[in-house]
Amino acid sequence: MKPFSKDGWGAVQVNARIDYLDLASKKLRNGFTNNFATGVFSPSTGLGRGGTQLGYLAGLIWIPEDYFRILLNYGHAQIEGGPQAAVAKPDSSKPINKRKYGVDTLLARVQVDF
Q1: Rounded-to-integer distance, Cα 20 and Cα 30, Å
Q2: pLDDT, tens digit, 9 for 90 and up, residues 6-39
């Protein structure tokens, strides 16, 4: 790495990640739900378990100097079912556990080490 202060470009790092989460498994659907306000356990309806989520993340990091870095991350999640499906897709005629929606995130951060 040749630092920016010495006529270089520093270092660039590219990151990518894919993850999958299944909170709608049969074991979870047949489990119990804890109402934290009352402390009472009750049989689960299966709809509030979170559904399935497929996430993508791409990141770019530029380190122009040893003590300074700029980070940029973009993420996208594809979600099917879960407790927010009724809110995200209120006009859908599909059952709550079959409703699909997506969420996008963008993060920018600057770090200085001193």
Answers
A1: 21
A2: 888 899 999 999 999 887 776 666 666 666 667 7
